[in-house]
Specification:
The complex is a heterodimer of chains A (about 110) and B (about 120). By secondary structure, chain A is mostly beta strands. Chain A is built from no helices and 9 strands. The termini of chain A are far apart. In chain A, strand 5 and strand 6 form a beta hairpin. In chain A, the strands form 2 sheets. In chain A, strands 1, 3, 4, 7, 8 and 9 form a 6-stranded mixed beta sheet that branches. In chain A, strands 2-6-5 form a 3-stranded antiparallel beta sheet, with no helix packed on it. Chain B has about 120 residues and is mainly beta. In chain B, about 0% of the residues lie in helices and about 50% in strands. Chain B contains no helices and 11 strands. In chain B, the strands form 2 sheets. In chain B, strands 2, 4, 5, 6, 9, 10 and 11 form a 7-stranded mixed beta sheet that branches. A 4-stranded antiparallel beta sheet of chain B has the order 1-3-8-7, with no helix packed on it. In chain B, strand 5 and strand 6 form a beta hairpin. Chain B is globular and about 40 Å long. Chain B starts with a strand and ends with a strand. Classes of the chains: A mainly beta (about 110), B mainly beta (about 120).
Chain lengths: ~110, ~120
């Protein structure tokens, strides 16, 4: 059971937009920076977003994220088949003194 | 640009100790600019943080694993290690080493490719 709650799966057609949510609490998302990772099956996770809404160099601006209160969201626009992957949110949990991740969301591009 | 590479046995017997090494290139493991992390992912499941070790050698571990985890640095070889004792089938997972791009970062920019460790007799 993950501390952070994500929908198990989302899907949309190529070219469309999808939103992935990550719900937490005041001890994690509410007071710490959120990061997002993309994991194509069989490969290591890749950093997509850091510090709530920042993209590392090389990440397309089709990927964006935000945080409000104890929830965070990842938006992906102009969906491509190559975006099919699992997406994880991650944050430090102050009460647990531990890094925690969401359970992951499988994105299917129909 | 850091490069991380896990190594170790792919098969461990129940009750024995899992030992993995992460070799770092492109940066010094003793640099205060980074910290070093172990994360695992059971087959078909999500990511689980195992623990963090700093250049000073201080460590922080997942409370659920703390009694079984030992992490260390070997600055002469630019690698850091994980030992997980008394393993069971539940410890079967892909184990990743990772690090941020600065010591103050709260995210993991660099990841190893991962190593599958199976616990089975």
């Amino acid at each position: 059971q993950s501390v952070l709650t994500q929908p198990p799966s989302v899907s949309a057609a190529p070219g469309q937009k999808v939103t992935i949510s990550c719900s937490g609490s005041s001890s994690d998302i509410g007071n710490n920076y959120v990061s997002w990772y993309q994991q194509i099956p069989g490969t290591a996770p890749k950093l997509l977003i850091y510090d709530n809404d920042n993209r590392p160099s090389g990440i397309p601006d089709r990927f964006s994220a935000s945080k409000s209160g104890t929830s965070a969201t990842l938006d992906i626009t102009g969906l491509q088949t190559g975006d099919e992957a699992d997406y994880y949110c991650g944050v430090w949990d102050t009460s647990l003194s531990a890094r925690v991740f969401g359970g992951g969301t499988r994105l299917t591009v129909l | 640009q850091l490069h991380l590479q896990e190594s170790g046995p792919g098969l461990v017997k129940p009750s024995e100790t899992l030992s993995l090494t992460c070799t770092v290139s492109g940066g010094s493991i003793s640099s205060s600019n980074y910290y070093w992390v172990w994360i695992r992912q059971p087959p078909g499941k999500g990511l689980e943080w195992i623990g963090t070790i700093y250049y000073s050698g201080s460590t922080y571990c997942n409370a659920s694993l703390k009694s079984r985890v030992t992490m260390s640095l070997d600055t002469s070889k630019d690698h850091f290690s994980l030992k997980l004792s008394s393993v069971t089938a539940a410890d079967t997972a892909v184990y990743y080493c990772a690090s941020p791009d600065s010591s103050s970062a709260t995210y993991y920019k660099y990841w190893g490719q991962g190593i599958l460790v199976t616990v089975s007799s």
